[in-house]
Amino acid sequence: MTSAPWLSLTIWIPIAFGVAVLAFNDRHAATVRRIALIGAVLGLAVSLPLYTGFNTQTSAMQFVELAPWIPRFSINYNLGVDGISVLFILLNSFITVLVVIAGWASITKRVAQYMAAFLIMSGLLNGVFAALDAMLFYVFFEATLIPMFIIIGVWGGPNRVYAALKFFLYTLLGSLLMLVSFLYLYDKSGGSFSIQDWWRLPLPLGVQILLFFGFLLGFAVKVPMWPVHTWLPDAHVEAPTGGSVILAAIMLKMGGYGFLRFSLPMFPVASHLLGPLVFWMSAIAIVYTSLVALVQEDMKKLIAYSSVAHMGFVTMGLFSLDAQGVQGAVFQMVSHGLVSGALFLCVGVVYDRMHTREISAYGGLARRMPLYAFALMLFTMANVGLPGTSGFVGEFLTLIGAFAASTWVALGATTGVILSAAYALWLYRRVAFGALDKPSLAAIADLEPREVLVLAPLALLVVYYGVHPQPILDASQASVDALLRGVGAALASAAKAAAYAQL
């Protein structure tokens, strides 16, 4: 136990500030923005001790909090983090501060409700990554849908209602089989919802396979994996800038995190046997969505399809069951959170000025917006996976893991890397280069200080982790090694049992 309930603070401080700002209306918009920023900064501040006090040499859960919640059903308020989940809490708390600042001037109606939705969602997302009780996890996991549904449906574009409903239905329905699987595991464990207890359950192969698919649908929709990815482009296009940033940077990571926390440790033999299925789904996602991105005319939709492709590297790395592949997947999730969030913020910068996301409406911005062109170039290069940026490290490690498991899948994924360079550079050339001949762009202004304040930290982190990835790799190494040791032991036991059965 620690001297302060840091995990509870990371959850409930943003939620408390989110509820507090609802007491104000639009006449107090300036006050609302200041309170929201204080809440977001405090949320980040209380997450920092998780990193400074974290012991990277152990895979055990740290900063554990345990209290009874619904004792009759053995449901507990049980929190804790390992080297994987602590990274996502830090990422979420950091991105929340940037989103609040990014919406400072662009959101002028229902400001209190807008800021409240993001603060409450930040706390709920931290709850997802900290929960060690399965029902607590499920409550946080599903509750995150509500603020995002509101964000898209209220502050989104012309088709916001359709996009919000599609997002809500896809993600909710995908979780129902997971809930059924939870109830089975609760019964099988003798009445425990402890995730750590479930890791030790000796499940027959047939049961593992059924439960694997139960969890696969819920997490695949969140990632999202092909072919259940179609909700994402619609949600991104219609969502306001802040909604797209949180959706890409944090919410998609719940799927990858779910595979790490549930599927791999609980169903190791099924994960090994069905790994090729996930591999090919990942390879198809990388190549197919990259090809679709090549023909997009909307900047947001192009980046949305790019997100599906890059998350394909994550699922590919996870199910390689290789130390470098899994660590690469964790690194890729953090890197993608920074890079994709930055790209959507870059789109928001020009959208706030021109109120269009059509690529054809731009051209030659480097002449009028050199700072913006530089920032967009840096994040585009990171999205491509240029060495020296964080995007390279994650993709490189996942490809190493993929080659160890399947040369053909790795070859397909490598093709996706080439395609990502094609659509990303095509986008940058059409937006930043060329003649500045459109009258509407003649007076467009470069980045404001507030926009520099938002993009500069992301740029620094993308470069820093590109040349010095060790902090992320060190934090996750012990947890990844422990996970793979458990998977290896389960596979060895299954092989031994099969050998005895043949005698």
Give an account of the 3D structure.
With about 500 residues, this protein is mainly alpha-helical. It is about 75% helix and about 5% strand. The chain is built from 22 helices and 2 strands. The protein has helices at about 5-20, 30-45, 50, 85-100, 110-130, 135-145, 145-155, 160-190, 195-200, 205-220, 230-240, 240-250, 255-265, 270-295, 300-320, 325-355, 365-370, 370-385, 390-405, 405-430, 450-465, 470-500; strands at about 60-70, 75-80. A two-stranded antiparallel ribbon has the order 1-2. Strand 1 (about 60-70) and strand 2 form a beta hairpin. Helix 18 (about 370-385) runs parallel beside helix 21 (about 450-465). The longest helix is centred in the C-terminal third of the chain and has 33 residues, at about 470-500. It is globular and about 75 Å long. The N and C termini lie far apart (about 50 Å). The mean pLDDT is about 90.
Count of DSSP E strands?
2
SSE order: HHHEEHHHHHHHHHHHHHHHHHHH
Approximate shape: globular
Q: Indicate the radius of gyration in whole angstroms.
A: 22 Å
Which consecutive residue ranges, at least 5 long each, have pLDDT under 50? Answer: none
Strand and helix map with partners:
Elements lengths: L5 H16 L7 H17 L2 H5 L9 E9 L4 E7 L3 H18 L8 H20 L3 H10 L1 H11 L4 H29 L6 H5 L5 H18 L8 H8 L2 H11 L1 H14 L1 H27 L4 H20 L4 H32 L10 H4 L1 H15 L5 H16 L1 H26 L16 H19 L2 H33 L1
Helix pairs in contact: 1-2, 1-5, 2-4, 2-5, 4-5, 4-12, 4-16, 4-21, 5-6, 5-7, 6-8, 7-8, 8-10, 8-11, 10-13, 10-14, 11-15, 12-16, 13-15, 14-15, 14-20, 15-16, 15-19, 15-20, 16-18, 16-19, 16-21, 16-22, 18-20, 18-21, 19-20, 19-21
